[in-house]
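Budget justification note: compute hours in this period were largely spent on complex prediction jobs such as the one shown. Inputs:
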Amino acid sequence: MEIEIVNLREIVGIVRGTFLTKQPQLDLEISSCGASDLMSDVLSFMKPGSLLLTGLVHPQSVRTAEMADIAAIVFVRGKTPGSEVIGLGNELGIPLIASPYGMYEICGRLYKAGLPPAMK
Amino acid sequence: MAQVIKFTKIQELIYELPIERVMKKDVIKVSPDASMKELKEILRINRISGVPVLEEERLVGIISIEDLIKALVEGDIQAPVRKRMTTRMITVLENESVVEAVKKFAQYKVGRLLVVNEQGLLRGILTGGDITRGLLEAISLDYHAEEISRYRAKHIFEDIVSDQTSLILRYKVKARDFKRGGSASSKVKRALDRLGAVPEVIRRVAISTYEAEMNLIIHAEGGGELIAEMQPDVIRITAIDHGPGIPDMDQAMSPGFSTAPNWIRELGFGAGMGLTNIKKSADSMKLESTMGVGTQMEIVIYLRPEVREESNLNHGSGVEGSCRP
Amino acid sequence: MPSLKEITQKLNLEVVSSASLVDRPVTGGYASDLLSCAMKGAQKDYLWVTLQSHLNVVAVASLLNLAGVIITEGSQPDGETITRAEKEGVVLLVTPKTTFTVVGDLTLLGVKGDS
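Corresponding output:
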């Protein structure tokens, strides 16, 4: 399994995602990935510049991403966040993506695509 | 990220940049009474393909290499410039934005535009190349501008003289306010960025402050206050609340221990990692609590590694917690 | 699909409770740290991958009759949780790897999730 740097355009393709925020930033390069619904954990373990997969559709997901310098968030399982969350994503410049797949499925796909884990 | 910023900057700049910023101000000109032969020399020596014609200070026409060739072909090389020049001049105003110049280039298909002021006096010459160069310079200047404002903010501590200067930011935190949770930490983070702290330090402060803020939201019955005191070498974050207090400090400090009710866990919080995260990120943490009265947490992060070492030698680093029943 | 015993061996998972019950079938995988989501999405004989290590995880695993729970990032469940897991016959497995990596490994072993 090769380690590659993947960009947001490819990720959106792999997870069949739709952009929720205004500026898609399709060329944004993502170096690693983490899956978690526990924001404390995200904060302590995820590397800057990584992709967060989460089912927590709450402003805290975006705030945590801001604190941890996370590059983008994929909300799993077809969950769509409310306007407040999307507004926060736009305000902070963090791309938010919705995917119909479950977290297990998305992890499998991105792992196979070569994305390394985001552990610090 | 940088790529995206540059691209939109160019679009912005095309509309914002005034022509006078990018034009060539040193204009080579020719008098209408000069001969076409003299013009030939002017064009050859300066390696240009066209010149504005000025009578005294007044712009009266423009003459180019095409005009010269026509004169040569007609055997009229001794004629004065006045006879062979074009009086129809395509001009732009010096305070118009570059986009106007771009439009005129497209419309008239000329090689250069004459830049004039409101009174019609020649102020400069503009070519396509000048626009490109001007945009590129402006972009790099913009980046410098950001660094300059950071530089300025950082110098608050040097320009304002005292025995010890601190910048104190205070935030009120409401209990159970999950939606706005993290907004205070976000502001602290941004402030530190402007003050010129290094990204690694900003991250550590952000994480500690965020966990402290979330603790107030989750556990403090009446909410509390978050105070960030910034000095040139150190930042001190204090989180204060007025209840209920921590019954067992050792338990509270152990990773994974949480008193958060289930509904809070369902929101993704309350995993019991807050204090552990703070311990990992901060240089020192002090926690004091009295049941029925309240809890105060003080976090210290040194902004420069040398200062941290000095402090370790003098005070000893670490984490203290004390509980009063 | 591989059995829980094979998975435990291949992925080097630490068995912290109900070791005798490790040889059981696995029909799929599920990942989430939110209990309410797990309650809805995880099915009988599924393997649940999560960072959560507290008592409620055992309750959910028992209720849904899951094959087991893989607790990630090296989180160690406390004594009370392990005791309860033993009592309910819930297999708890611990790994130092992240959820993302473990799910990736499981997928490569052939353990599928729901689409």
